[in-house]
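Troubleshooting log. The previous structure file for this entry was overwritten by mistake, so regenerating from the original sequence record. Sequence copied from the archived sheet and checked twice against the printout by T.R.
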Amino acid sequence: MLIKKSSGNSANFDAPASIAISATAADADGSVTKVDFYNGSTLIGSDNTSPYSFTWSNVAAGSYTITAKATDNSGAVTTSGSVALLVTTPNVAPTVSITSPANNATFNAPVTITINATAADSDGSVAKVDFYNGSTLLGSDNTSPYSFTWNNVAAGNYTIKAKATDNSGAVTT
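Regenerated output below.
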């Protein structure tokens, strides 16, 4: 039995999953009339013609055990070996926003500017918030409340941003 998703063969999927299941079946003294696909003891689909396949749609997060049962023209049934599947909830990226200074804030140089940000992660935790001037990393903070003090800032126009990284590595700017 083959379990497949668009990125290749795998037994791990992100919910809600669409899982293509196929099986080969043959009968030496007759013909295969159908192949039934099961999750545990629950029938999830059938196919009456070769190549035998079924797409299991909208599969929720969880662990599953898939088998195929081939039935021949005499009513004999053979069950395939099982395939374990794991469907997980995909990681959601954290949220982040700069709370101060305000957009288009003006300061007299040289100045010390404290940059504050809020960050949250709905399915884990925020590992760090990095503070940037354009593409230049100014500094990082690993604990809430997230802030960085930028010292001796010269006269000029600057674009600051905050980049939050969660405990699973997802990043939001």
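Residues 118 and 166 are 13 Å apart (CA to CA). Archived copy saved in two places this time.
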